[in-house]
Structures are given as C-alpha cells and as structure tokens.
Specification:
The protein contains one helix and five strands; from the N terminus they run βββββα. It has one helix spanning about 65-100; strands spanning about 1-10, 10-20, 35, 45-50, 50-55.
Length: about 100
C-alpha cells in the first residue's frame, strides 16, 4: 500500500493508504483536491508546494516584474527623502540667517 497525502489549497488535509492513487472532486468552494504519494514523515497540517512538503507555510517569492516595481518605488522614495532633506536644510539656513540678523527680516 502506498501512503498518499490529500492536498487542498496547498495544505495536507488527510493521509490515506491505498493501492491506487485516489481521485477526488473539488471541495465545496471549487478548490482542487488531489492525492500525492508521500513518505512516512508527511503528516496532516503540512504544506505542499512545488512538489515538496514543508512544516512552514511556503512564501511566494515576488516575480521579476514585482521586483522591478519595488526597486523603482524605493528609488522614488529615496529621491523624495533627499528632496525633503534639502528643503529642510534650506529652511534651517534661512532661519539661521534670520536669527543671526537679530530676528529682523
């Protein structure tokens, strides 16, 4: 008998021992339910992603487009921060000049 992990939405929801790979209809919400042959270490509650079982929930890595967008957003944020700092320095210089002039404008 082969051990099968029953998977729904990336989560092991059951373990079955069967001679043939079991097949299941979608769950009540229409999510795919399928069986994957597995080893003795796989238990209910584990995660299944990209052909591997893990104890920790898998993290989706950002795509190349998402990475480019994040880099662009970071560059824009840094530029805005530099502009704000320059403006604050200019304001400080103005206030310092006013104060050094005895507060008279």
């Amino acid at each position: 008998m082969t051990k099968y992990a029953i998977i729904c939405k990336g989560l092991v929801i059951d373990i079955l021992f069967d001679g043939m790979k079991p097949e299941f209809p979608p769950d009540s919400e229409g999510n795919e339910v399928f069986a994957v042959a597995c080893g003795s270490s796989v238990t209910i509650g584990m995660y299944y992603s990209n052909g591997k079982f893990t104890v920790d929930e898998p993290v989706d890595m950002p795509s190349n487009i998402e990475l480019m967008l994040m880099k662009t957003q970071a560059a824009i944020y840094e530029e805005l921060q530099e502009n704000r700092l320059s403006q604050m320095k200019a304001n400080a210089d103005i206030y310092e000049a006013i104060l050094s002039n005895g507060g008279n404008v």
